[in-house]
Amino acid sequence: MNLKAFIKTNPIRFWLTAIGWIIIPALSITNTYVVQEETNILLSRNWTKFILIDVLAFLIMLVDYGVSALVDYQQQAQVQDLNDQVRDKIVKRYYYDGKKHTVAQMQNRLTNDLQMLNNNYFINVFLLIYGVSTIVFVLIYLILLSWQLLLAICLMVAISLLLPKLTEKPLQKATELISDSNQKYLDTLNDWLSGLDQLQQFLAGAKLFSVIEKTSKKLEDANVKQTAYIKLLNAVNGIVSAAFGLALFVLAGWLVKNHQIPIGALLVVGNFRYYLNGGIDTLTNGLGAMKGSKKLLAEVDKSASDIPMQAEKDVVMPNVIKTKDLVLKFPNGEKLTYPDLEIKQGEKILLTGDSGTGKSTLFKLILGELKPSAGKVVYEDKAGKKINPDLSKIGYLPQDPVVFPASIEENITMFNEKLNGKVKQVINEVNFTDDIAKFTEGLDEKINLDKLNISGGQRQKIVLARAKVHNSDIILIDEGTSAIDQKATMSILKNLLKSKTTIVFIAHNFNEGMHQLFDREIHLVKE
């Protein structure tokens, strides 16, 4: 994500927009010349020429407004097209890099960070063209009037270009602080609002408000700090520009007095000051903001970079999963110690234990989502040789089933149309057929995550069917039937456990009949 990529998004539109930003100051300077001529014609009392030149000035103003509106639209289109491409690359990288990314981190990168780069970098690319063009056209105009004015303007521009150095580093730090503070704010919202119902139940609103207010204040302070540096730069620019404008007016007056420029030029020297101030402000502020965004630009560019695609390898699933001296320590000093376990291919294991014994955590250790503090998880093939399997191919059904705002069938097949023919069989195996019949659209019923048009038990049946239809050799199920009645659970377990799949099932309150369906039970105890 850089200037080259910005241009390549749509080269023709970029250069046409750039030309538009050159035309706008050209029209403004041309209109200034027309006003100067109006003054000279008015002094000569030639009313016919005066009316004609007035009409010309009006037409130039209309064209100026039209070009400005068109350029603004094309500029936004160019920026948004780049954003679409970058978001697509970022999402693909999050998908393929195999790393764990928090929702808040991804949201911040895809929204706030891109918006800051839009405002502080890419919009300023065009504004720099406008600022430089304005200064150039003013210089050309003044060259035609007087070399003394030219020298004065060159000196003013040179000094003005040094101004961004005053706030470049503080502004860059302020921009980075906003990005970090915004991510922390999103993290806080995600951590606390996900448990809003519990906070409401126990009347813990005061704590929620306090935490949100604290992180919100940090984000507010970061924005205020950035604004302060921007305003400081603007203030310095304003003072310097005003001083330059006054000096220019005095110099122009001296030149009129010495008959080196026409009196009409004196009357429009204020316009020169306005355009010069605007050009210098745009140039210096734009350069300062762009330089201050370099680090964020590099970070976003890294997030959007391509991941080298590796040749697909045959997926080797473990025949045996073993744990050896497995320990997981927590920051608060607590730890989970596991007995040495061995899970063989095809076994149906019931994993039990009191709350806090680490049953769900064991699954995450097996899946590689957590790294043990000590010990290890070992995966072996049929020959007893250690392997590094693709852990993403292990079926995992978490306590809170994950479904998407798509059809029930798509949620089961995970958008693989080749599996559509197997769906009816697996929904029957997980006792989901009667539920499907209740939906107006059947399998095509779209899940509404906001209005929750499916029950907790139906969500669990969907993910159970998902694991079945994808023929996972190993399935780890965490409370996979907790929201389903015992009769239906018994039927589902019988269908599920008669397959050759290795199944480890976490459950509470199973009756004796359900226990007997499993080959053995592993009971965890907290040491």
Automatic annotation (TrEMBL):
Keywords: ATP-binding, Membrane, Nucleotide-binding, Transmembrane, Transmembrane helix. GO terms for molecular function: ABC-type transporter activity; ATP binding; ATP hydrolysis activity; ATPase-coupled lipid transmembrane transporter activity. SMART domains: AAA. This is ABC transporter. One of its GO terms (cellular component) is plasma membrane. It is found in: Cell membrane. It is a multi-pass membrane protein. It comes from the Bacteria. Its main location: membrane. InterPro entries: AAA+_ATPase, ABC1_TM_dom, ABC1_TM_sf, ABC_transporter-like_ATP-bd, P-loop_NTPase, Sigma_54_int_dom_ATP-bd_1, Type_1_exporter. It comes from Lactobacillus crispatus.
